[in-house]
Design goal:
Blueprint: H1 3-32, E1 44-48, E2 62-71, E3 76-81, E4 90-94, E5 98-100, H2 122-138
Antiparallel strand pairs: 1-2, 1-5, 2-3, 3-4
Region (Disordered): 104-142
Biased composition (Basic and acidic residues): 120-142
């Protein structure tokens, strides 16, 4: 066997190994990936914040509510903001960056308001818990 034939044989074997590995990697990736949600016109959604800047690190990860005004190809949607919340008025987004608008975002009205902040925060609960324990130890419980 001369050098050229051996080189072609090694290249063919390497190409076959690469194809096999790519197939295995795709199968493993697709196992963890969930299918996209299909939305209809007039559905209310929240869209993922894609631009972060100064002071936005602690803001919510999603903006909304938005109403779907047009369904495009390949899981893309044109959306329009409802209410006066933060975010662009009209934008185009992909289903991967959207989720259905619901009770988990705060209020159901479309004003963009939120109930965040009405519950006592975790630190307050911990402080109250600590105070009641120390009061019980000293005998000054409620």
């Amino acid at each position: 066997m001369d050098l050229d034939e051996e080189r072609e044989l090694v290249r063919a074997r390497a190409s076959e190994n690469i194809k096999q590995l790519q197939t295995e990697n795709k199968r493993g990736f697709d196992l963890k990936r969930k299918g996209e949600i299909i939305y209809k016109i007039d559905d209310l959604v929240a869209i993922k914040r894609t631009q972060y800047g100064t002071g936005l690190k602690l803001k919510g990860k999603f903006l909304g509510p938005y109403k779907i005004v047009k369904v495009n190809k390949h899981g893309r949607y044109d959306v329009e903001k409802l209410g006066d919340g933060y975010g662009p008025f009209k934008t185009s987004t992909v289903a991967e960056y959207m989720k259905p608008w619901g009770n988990s975002f705060g209020s159901n009205d479309v004003s963009g308001g939120s109930i965040v902040g009405n519950e006592p925060d975790q630190r307050t609960k911990m402080i109250d818990n600590t105070e009641s324990k120390s009061e019980r130890r000293s005998g000054n419980a409620y």
